[in-house]
Design brief:
It is a single chain. With 132 residues, the protein is an alpha+beta fold. The chain folds into 2 domains: 59 residues, Ribosomal Protein S8, Chain: A, domain 1, CATH 3.30.1370.30; 55 residues, 2-Layer Sandwich (Dna Ligase, domain 1), CATH 3.30.1490.10. It has 3 helices and 8 strands, in the order αβαββββββαβ. Strands 4, 5, 6, 7 and 8 form a 5-stranded antiparallel sheet that branches. Strands 1-3-2 form a 3-stranded antiparallel sheet.
Amino acid sequence: MSMQDPISDMLTAVRNANIARHETASFPTSRIKNDILRILQEEGYIKRFENVEVAGKPRTVVVLKYTENEQPVISGIERVSKPSLRQYYGHSDIPRVRSGMGHAILTTSEGIMTDNMARRKKIGGELICKVW
């Protein structure tokens, strides 16, 4: 676990659990992670998530989602903006993920939202990650 980029650690935990066909993934809780997970849940990439306490420390548990033939719903998830290299986009420059088949998640002045919501509201922001 890198202490420098907790969001990247969360995405890696989800990616690895998906590859290993685990039912859940868990990692330390934070508000921004919960906001990202809320979007993944709303867009149908995960079943649900909940915050629990393990040995007195808050952790988030994500219940992963698979198709009927047990393929992960998330076929790819990657960090875009890193602490070492922030990636900001104006609303008209937000890249499309897999020709619109995936989603970009941005943090904007109005909170964390998908690329489609940001374009609709005509606001740009920092591109946190892409999922497809």
